[in-house]
Amino acid sequence: MSTVASPHRVDRLSPARLWQGLQVWLTERPHATIGFSILRILFGLAMLVVLLPSHADRHYLWGAGSWWVEPETSRRGWWEPLRLLFPKDSPVVFDISFHVLIGLAVLFVVGWKTRWVTPVLLVFWVGLSTNSTLLGNGGDTLMRIVLLFVVFADLSRHLSIDAWIRRRRGIRPSRLAARMPRWVPPWLGAWAHNTVLILCVFQILLVYLVSSLLKLRGEEWLDGTAIYYALSLDQFHVMPDLSRLAWQFAPGVALATWTALWVQLLFPVLILWRPSRYVAVVLITGMHLGIALLLGLWPFSLAMIGLDLLLVRDRSWERVPALVARARRRALGAGT
What we know:
Elements: H1 7-12, H2 15-27, H3 33-51, H4 58-61, H5 70-75, H6 91-110, H7 114-129, H8 139-150, H9 161-169, H10 188-215, H11 219-223, H12 226-231, H13 240-247, H14 250-270, H15 274-295, H16 298-308, H17 314-335
C-alpha cells in the first residue's frame, strides 16, 4: 500500500515557504542574545589573559624590544595606519595605547557602552596584533574575525551594565528599535544581529571541519595517541603533575583523542538536531576546557567556548535557573 505525502508537509518544505521562514527568522527578533552576551564576557577575559600577565614584558613582546620580529610583521602587509597606535619607536605612546586597550577590554567584559566600545576595541586589538606575528595560537586570528562581525550584533542585552541601566530606566529590549531614527527600518537591527550569528556559526564549522580533516591525516589521531604526545611536550606543561597523571591513563587518553576527532568531524551534522547539538556543545566545551587547563591555551579556549555557546538558544538558557533550583531542592530534600 503506497503512502501519499501530506500536501501541508510538502508545502512546508517548498522553496518559497523555506525562504519565507528564513526571512521571518532573520527579521522577527534577534536570536542567541544570551549567547552573545556570554561571548562578550569570554572574549574580553581572553584579551585580559593575554594582556595582564604580559604587562611587565609588554615592550619586549610588542614594543621597542620587538624590532627583531619586524621583517616577518612587515611581510604580512598590515594596513599601516593600524600600526600607528602601538609605535615601537615611542614607548610613551605605546604605553598609553596598551593601557587604553586594557581599559577597553574591562569595559567590554562588564558591558558598558558596548555599542561604542566594541569597534574601538577591535581597532586597538588589531593594532597590537600588527606588532608581532609570533605570539598567537589561532585564537587571536579567530577573535579578530569575530570582533569585526559582532560590531553589528547586540552584545549587551544580558549580563551587562548597559542592561542594568536600561532596566533602571524602564527601557525594554523590545522598545530599543523604537528609539532608532525614523529612516532606519525597524527590522534592520534584528537582521544584522542574526546575520552575524550565521557568520559566527560558519566560523565554528570551518574551524572544526578543517581541524578534523587535518587530524585524519595523522596516524596518532587514528590510533588514539595524539593527546598523549601533546601532553608530554615540555612547553605545554602548565601543571606538570596533572599532565603526567592524565597521560598515564591510557584508556582515557585514547577516548579523549577519538572524541576530539569525531565530534569535530561530525559537528556540522550534530548541530542539525537539537538534542545532539547540545551533546556536541557539552563535549566540545569539555575539550576546550581540557586544552586550557592542561595546555595553557586559555585565550584560544575561551574564544572557542564563547562561539560554541552561541548554538544554545535563549529559551534553553532561561530554563537553567529553574533546573538549578529544582536540583537544589532535590538535593536538600535528600539530605534531610
